[in-house]
Amino acid sequence: MSSFDIWVRHFEANAKGHAAMDAAIDWQARPTLDARSRAAFVRSFQRFELGESGDGSHLLGMAAAAGDPVYTAALGLLVREEQKHSALFARGLRHLDALPLRSHWTDAAFTRLRRLLGLRTEIGLFLIAESVAMGYFIALADHAPDPVLRGFGHRIATDERNHIRFQIARLRQGFRDTPASSKRLVRIVWTLIAAGAAAVLVVDHGSALRACGISPIRYWGKAMRSFRAAARSALDVDDAVLLGPAR
Ligand SMILES: [Fe+2]
Ligand SMILES: [Fe+2]
Q1: Which ligand approaches the C-alpha of residue 82 most closely?
Q2: What is the pTM assigned to this prediction?
Q3: Does the pLDDT at position 104 exceed 60?
């Protein structure tokens, strides 16, 4: 039996909870933002709408080749959650009376980079992206100056917390037989990428963060702390412990 059964069950149960959470958002409400905040969130949501829209076929193909069909099924369900996030950001854009973007260089560059890599490296990049963005979703959930934005921020933050745990569970397996010296090198490379990813996030989403009352510079530090905690959990913890979904 695969140790990822628990994750398939989690994602299946979570999908049932989504409808109720989405129904609690009053999408018909008029936006309560001033023009400046509206522009900030439009720019920010356009990037997230694109970033979460991939079909994951490359990633899922690599997972299938790695030979644990239960893990691949769980990853497929995670990809579906990301697509729902993209749809939520598109809906958020409609709420703000704006349109999605067709493409953006940060998304195209990230996709191109990921295509060059193996499964473990790609999951590592996933973990970096999610751990540096986690604080943004929480900021949206807790501090966005509009109830619809807070509603779907909360919805996405709830999913993402478990995405991070899911990536960590797989990485613990992936690094089980990796010597400590190689893991040190992995951590250095990840840290450099996380620093860059957090910087791009702060530039792309700085005005939206400010509209939530958060200083972009402070956000960068917070994102790096969140990344370091995730990396520690993925690389340092005894591999006998498989991380399960948060209750
Ligand atoms: Fe997401
Ligand atoms: Fe995610």
Answers
A1: 1
A2: 0.92
A3: yes
